[in-house]
């Protein structure tokens, strides 16, 4: 295949923070950027030479984008399949339609993973409140999820008793949903894989992650886990990436249970919040890697140059009595502030992140959490920013 060289134009379906950060990387490599997003003030607008304001099911707008780009990629998977087909008729679409179609529906994704023999927790495709109730009776505590969207803890309901099924069904809109058995989690990790059109792959070391109410709180690399588990997770992510045939990035989120099982949680065909630290501590950031992959350039090294960590900044930071104490936060050695250029802070909305590097994963994590405490001391009670001891697990 012919590489798409600097000077060409990359189109993005989606102009959120992931598109913004990838666009910065692409700009530094000499590419032009165009974006399609429903929000006229989307985060990537400041980096793009052209922004088309249109919904993600607008075929005409997507074709307009495709005709002026040498390759189109995405930063959000909830793009209508007909739009993906229309784009592919006019320019290179990476990732392709097939992997996105599998991933964008949670039930379809789980059923595909199960059919391929990848390790999963128990799940049920519930077509009624009675199905939800039956799942809880069979599996005990469960979590019900909408099939589309619902990121960062939204579109999810936790159930511990069968009697909660009717309310959960209504809360999710009275539509078919995914019901998963809750597992006893020792820790959470993710693995990012990049893949070129010809099949070459680059696999990142696992990231260790922590969530609060379904929203990523912090992520750190190296993950400080047993080498055997690290290798197992990388092999699993590589196998999924190859089998699904994606071109671009695939983030594989996993649970490691208290029994030592490695289970796939979810897939994401794009840059991922858990690898924002790749900008600081890895030889090639996930954003530059996406540009390399979709343009069919040699993939960059995934070597860890410095332990690094991030903590998310939600809208709550800007909704306190006092504005964020930026000067105090940046006094922490190795810390850096990353804001996404979003207007209108609201609770739960990702507005940016802090990052830090250190001589060890523990030091990097401690630094970024200390930076957060200094930035917004009022939000600590509602956001789990205690510093855990990253002892190497035997799992």
What can you see in these coordinates?
Its EC number is 6.3.4.18. ATP binds at residues 106, 145, 150-156, 180-183, 188, 211, 265-266. GO terms for molecular function: 5-(carboxyamino)imidazole ribonucleotide synthase activity; ATP binding; metal ion binding; phosphoribosylaminoimidazole carboxylase activity. The chain is of the alpha+beta class and 395 residues long. It is 29% helix and 26% strand. The protein has helices at 17-28, 59-67, 81-88, 97-103, 106-115, 129-139, 165-171, 227-244, 278-281, 286-294, 326-329, 361-375, and strands spanning 9-13, 32-37, 50-53, 71-74, 92-93, 123-126, 142-146, 156-159, 177-181, 185-195, 201-203, 207-212, 215-221, 248-257, 262-268, 308-314, 335-339, 350-357. A hairpin with a 2-residue loop joins strand 12 (207-212) and strand 13. It is globular, with a radius of gyration of 21 Å.
Quick tags:
18 strands; lyase; phosphoribosylaminoimidazole carboxylase activity; single chain; 12 helices; 29% helix; Dna Ligase, domain 1; D-amino Acid Aminotransferase, Chain A, domain 1; PurK; Rudment_hybrid_motif; 395 residues; globular; ATP binding; Rossmann fold
């Amino acid at each position: 295949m012919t590489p798409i060289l600097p000077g060409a134009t990359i189109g993005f379906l989606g102009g959120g923070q992931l598109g913004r950060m990838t666009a910065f990387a692409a700009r530094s490599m000499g590419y032009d950027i165009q974006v399609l997003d429903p929000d006229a003030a989307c985060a990537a607008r400041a980096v793009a030479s052209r922004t088309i304001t249109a919904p993600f099911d607008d075929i005409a707008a997507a074709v307009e984008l495709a005709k002026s780009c040498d390759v189109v990629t995405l930063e959000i998977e909830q793009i209508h399949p007909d739009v993906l087909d229309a784009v592919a008729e006019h320019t290179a679409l990476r990732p392709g339609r097939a992997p996105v179609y599998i991933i964008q529906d949670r039930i379809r994704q789980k059923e595909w993973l199960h059919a391929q023999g990848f390790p999963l927790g128990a799940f049920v495709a519930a077509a009624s409140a009675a199905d939800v109730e039956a799942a809880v009776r069979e599996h005990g505590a469960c979590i019900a999820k909408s099939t589309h969207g619902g990121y960062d803890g939204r579109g999810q309901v936790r159930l511990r008793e069968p009697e909660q099924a009717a309310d959960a069904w209504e809360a999710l809109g009275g539509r078919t949903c995914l019901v998963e058995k809750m597992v006893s989690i020792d820790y959470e990790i993710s693995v990012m894989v990049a893949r070129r059109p010809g099949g070459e792959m680059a696999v990142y070391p696992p990231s260790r992650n922590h969530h609060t109410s379904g929203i990523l709180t912090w992520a750190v690399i190296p993950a400080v886990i047993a080498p055997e588990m690290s290798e197992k997770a990388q092999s699993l992510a590589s196998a999924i990436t190859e089998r699904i045939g994606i071109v671009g990035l695939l983030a594989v989120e996993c649970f490691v249970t208290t029994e030592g099982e490695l289970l796939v949680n979810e897939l994401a065909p794009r840059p991922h919040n858990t690898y924002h630290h790749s900008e600081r501590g890895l030889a090639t950031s996930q954003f530059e890697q996406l540009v390399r992959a979709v343009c069919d350039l040699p993939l960059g090294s995934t070597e860890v140059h410095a332990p690094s960590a991030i903590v998310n900044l939600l809208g709550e930071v800007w909704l306190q009595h006092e504005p964020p104490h930026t000067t105090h936060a940046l006094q922490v050695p190795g810390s850096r502030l990353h804001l996404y250029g979003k207007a209108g802070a609201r609770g739960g909305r990702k507005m940016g992140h802090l990052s830090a590097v250190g001589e060890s994963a523990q030091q990097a994590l401690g630094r970024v959490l200390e930076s957060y405490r200094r930035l917004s001391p009022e939000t600590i009670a509602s956001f789990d920013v205690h510093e855990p001891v990253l002892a190497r697990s035997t799992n």
